[in-house]
Amino acid sequence: MARALSQIVTVIRGSVGGITFTANQWHQILLRAKTAPVQPQTSRQNNIKNGFNMSSEDWKVMSPADRALWKEYGGTVTYTGPLGDYTLPGRQIFMAGQSLVNYINQAELDIIPPNLSPPEIPGRATFALITTGPLATPGTGFCVSISNDTAEDLEALIEISPAFNQTRNRYKGPFSSATAVAVEIPTASFLVTDFTGLVADLAYFVRVRGVVINAPARLTKITILRAVATETGI
């Protein structure tokens, strides 16, 4: 299904028949042939699928009262798209957060106890600050510093892109699952994660997504930052 804002059509997204409508930095409306999803059957993809399936089963066994509360929570999380602001159903909100928790567990990046309870706090979870900078110890790469000034413990999934020439300023993916790390950032604290063994003077992009742990799995927004690998001497 395609959606449009019109005088006659200025913005359109989605698919009609074999045509997908999208946009890029040069055109508001771009048409291309609809393509089937790639199924490489990698370990990462299998972990994502398993995490999603587990979340679906969790939703099925949830009480009707908790499902209703997740639906109410969904109405407090606003997303912004090319066609304006929108919200998602409670089931999708629940599965997004719980799937991330399940993926981190499935990929053995960390161990997060499941919590299927509906949130009592409205809206997204938030990190106070995410920055990149040079390494504090010898090596070639950069560090990612994440601060949490909320009253909730957060888990951050961090991934980096392939290397690019420094003329590259934007990147949306894909990100390398081989670089993925998951780190716990307790309430009122910050954590620094180093990425080393990179190529000096090349640009990398860092994707960070967080989820509340030890409480209902509320997500943060996705943050993508640019960093340049530098060599830090002894």
Span between termini: 57 Å
CATH class of the largest domain reads Mainly Beta
The low-confidence runs, each spanning 5 or more residues with pLDDT under 50, are none
Structural class: alpha+beta
Radius of gyration: 20 Å
The CATH architecture assignment of the largest domain turns out to be: Sandwich
CATH superfamily of the largest domain: Immunoglobulins
| Mean pLDDT score | 90
Shape: globular
Question: What's the tally of helices?
Answer: 3
Molecular structure report:
With 234 residues, this protein is α+β, with helices and mostly antiparallel strands. The chain folds into 3 domains: 2-33, no CATH class; 43-106, no CATH class; 129-232, Immunoglobulin-like (Sandwich). Helix content is 20%, strand content 34%. The protein has 3 helices and 14 strands. The strands form 4 sheets. The chain has a 4-stranded antiparallel β-sheet, with no helix packed on it. A hairpin with a 2-residue loop joins strand 5 (79-81) and strand 6. The radius of gyration is 20 Å and the shape is globular.
Topology:
Layout: E1 2-5, E2 11-16, E3 19-22, E4 30-33, H1 43-61, H2 64-74, E5 79-81, E6 84-86, H3 90-106, E7 129-133, E8 139-148, E9 153-160, E10 181-185, E11 189-196, E12 203-213, E13 223-228, E14 230-232
Antiparallel strand pairs: 1-2, 2-3, 3-4, 5-6, 7-8, 8-11, 8-14, 9-10, 9-12, 12-13
Helix pairs in contact: 1-3, 2-3
